Amino acid sequence: MTVPTQAVETAVVRRAREFEYEAVGELTFRGFGHHLAGARQPDAERLNLLVDAGARAAAGELLVAEDTTTGELLGTVTVLQHGSALARQAEPGEVEVRLLAVLPEARRRGLGWLLLDRASELAVAQGAERIVLDTGVDNHGSQNLYERYGYVRRPDREKPRPAPKVQLAVFTLASPAANHSPGRPRPPRCITGRVSNPRAVYLTRALSGPVLRCFAKPGPQGSDLRTSP
Questions:
Q1: Contact present, 210 and 229 (Cβ < 8 Å)
Q2: ∠ Cα 160 100 209 (to 5°)
């Protein structure tokens, strides 16, 4: 499990509990910014998808990021297998990540990465060959996160949607389990990219591999993350 930055060093990603489903639904609605003044409101079908966290839990793995100091739920993501009632992109051999949402006031603190890490671990545990997800074609913030994580955009899998539905950009990531030979150590994985806080310290656990420390060196435009055994 990744523990990114001092600001969320107490965060943990876990399965949502049944009594939390209503709160997770509200979190998802707010995480997509629909509560903000002037925000575009979802249609009835989309609204039900956002707020019905129980249906997501029944269809797959409903995860939440919790601040263990305050008990507040800060983010959520749903992980679905191919054939799930709520999967819309997954093909055979793939796991799908849907409805990754972080509260606006909790963004830019590493929680999205934390949730993607746990989704990747589940994909490995389920023996998936790839992970697939989608996001709005104009949602450049989410696309930037996915690309930094290692996802690759797949225009060949993008299909037109009738108006007024949002057009989708599709991304895939090869699961570490796909190219791993039994009996061989799994290579360690560490966060790469840039951070705005030059003192930020990241700890990441490789998927079934050793622990690496990633540390940032100050720079005028942010800090490159390096790895250290």
A1: yes
A2: 115
Mean pLDDT of the chain: 79
Indicate the pTM of the whole model: 0.76
Q: Could you tell me the CA-to-CA distances from 192 to 124, 203, 225, 229 in Å, in that order?
A: 20, 12, 6, 14
> What is the rounded distance in angstroms from the CA atom of residue 24 to the CA atom of residue 76?
7
Structure letter (DSSP) for residue 40: P
Helix (H) or strand (E) holding 203: strand 201-205
What pLDDT, in 10s, does the model give residues 47-64?
Answer: 999 999 999 999 999 999
Contacts of 141 (CB under 8 A, 6+ apart): none
Distance CA 15, CA 170 (A): 25
Contact 132, 97 (CB under 8 A): yes
- Residue 173's H or E segment, with its range, is strand 168-174
- Cα–Cα distance between 116 and 2 in angstroms, integer? 9
Q: What is the C-alpha separation between 32 and 39, in angstroms, rounded? A: 10
- Residue 179: per-residue pLDDT: 53
Helix/strand/coil (H/E/C) assignment for every residue in 187-202: CCCCCCCEECCCCCEE
Range with the poorest average pLDDT among 9-13, 96-100, 208-212: 208-212
Cα–Cα distance between 103 and 173 in angstroms, integer?
A: 25
For residue 188, whether the previous peptide bond is cis, meaning omega lies within 30 degrees of 0, is: no
> What is the predicted pLDDT for the residue at 8?
53
Q: So what's the pLDDT on residue 212?
A: 31
R_g over Cα of the chain = 17
